[in-house]
Amino acid sequence: MVLGGLVIRADSEEVFNETMEKYRELTNMKAELKWSKVSVQKLSEYKTFIDYFFALNNADRIHFHSMIVDNHQVNHRKFNQNNPELGFYKFYYQLLLHAFGRRYCKTDHEARFIVHLDERTTKYKLGTLKTVLNRGIMKKYNIGWNPFRSIEPGDSKQSNLLQVGDLLIGAVGYQKNGYNLIAGAKQAKIDLAEHIAATVGLADLKQDTLANNKRFTIWNFTLRK
Questions:
Q1: Predicted model pTM
Q2: Where are the domains of the chain?
């Protein structure tokens, strides 16, 4: 399983929106872009979408961080009250706490997060996640200003941020699970994943990135035995 997301400063949001609007006009790609829809017919347009993201990424305006979890090692019965949904949000907690909270709050004491998670059907209360995140970041990193201000579901059809995230997460998961090696694998997805890896200077999207890489990271999460 791959969890991941983008982080953008408030003062870069307008630039991001203008950039993505320019992309939509130039390519006439008005519908939602997502990994499951990548095709040979639209491969060029998807590569261009990714290139627009990386132009902003290289300018240090927007970052991507992800976490890979080996589901075969997860014991929901022992650690999550036999509730996979609780376990799922525990992993979101780990991603948000370490890949985002620690990374940015340790260097910016004014950092505040408004989090939009891709909307999904769940009984889990996102307000609970916000509360435990702020408690956890205080306990583990002595960050006491409650940086996680809001965690709300977002509609990916209306959000370019969520659509970029879906493509990047999809590419990481595609290679990590070896779908690109299966007979009959979609060539367009193989090419797009390789394009993403090459753009960030990686041999593939399966291994941990370097610790000092702040703009694009992949973290293979290690579970306690």
A1: 0.93
A2: 2-220
